[in-house]
Amino acid sequence: MSAITRDEVAHLARLSRLALADEELDHFAAQLDVIIGAVARVAEVAADDIPPSSHALPLTNVYRPDEVRPSLTPDQALSGAPAVEDGRFRVPRILGEEA
Questions:
Q1: CA angle, 72 as apex, 68 and 94 as ends, to 5°?
Q2: Residue 52, domain member (yes or no)
Q3: How far, rounded to the nearest angstrom, does the alpha carbon of residue 38 sit from its chain's CA centroid?
Q4: How far apart are CA 61 and CA 72, in angstroms?
Q5: What three-state secondary structure class fits 10?
């Protein structure tokens, strides 16, 4: 693999609308070359016989089953509310919409 050139970094900087000094172009060229080399090494390790996966370990559902249980009645739930209207919690209007 060929090293990334200073001109290529300058071109990328122009596309990104970045103003880079001459010494920064040389510095970033070296850094980008290392990054591209690391990505190439990862590509070499990836094998065609290994299926893609989203997680390293298998996931299992940890949620409990959805079962009907005893709960508060609407009157009990609304009993501690500061304001109630038509069997619902009444809250201050925040959007200024007409009713």
A1: 110
A2: no
A3: 23
A4: 28
A5: helix
| pLDDT 10s digits, 19-30 | 999 999 999 999
* Residue 16 identity (one-letter amino acid): S
Supply the range of the domain harboring residue 26.
6-45
pLDDT, position 21:
93
**pTM: predicted TM-score of the whole model, two decimal places:** 0.44
In DSSP notation, 25-78 reads HHHHHHHHHHHHHHHHHHHHH--TTSPP-S-SS-----PPP--------HHHHH
Model pLDDT for residues 29-86, shown as the tens digit of each residue: 999 999 999 988 887 876 777 777 778 888 787 888 889 999 999 999 999 999 999 9
Could you give the number of structural domains in the chain?
Answer: 1
Residue 31: inside a domain: yes
